[in-house]
Give the backbone structure.
Amino acid sequence: MLWHAGRSHSPDEVRDAVSRYRAAGRTDAATTMLTSAAARDLRAVLHIVSTLLDAGQVEDASVLVSAALDQPA
């Protein structure tokens, strides 16, 4: 379910879900969702990164960028 959400939810929904998972101490779920989102096309990833940065979720943006860079070309 987290993989599907990361790949299909809007940037705002991804941001909010990741924030809620972190607040609940579910770092694993937050990371899974971000890793899944990293498999989206570049424009979608950048949009999510922007949304995370606007919300002050710098660590989450960093996790997403790192995961995206680890994706096969």
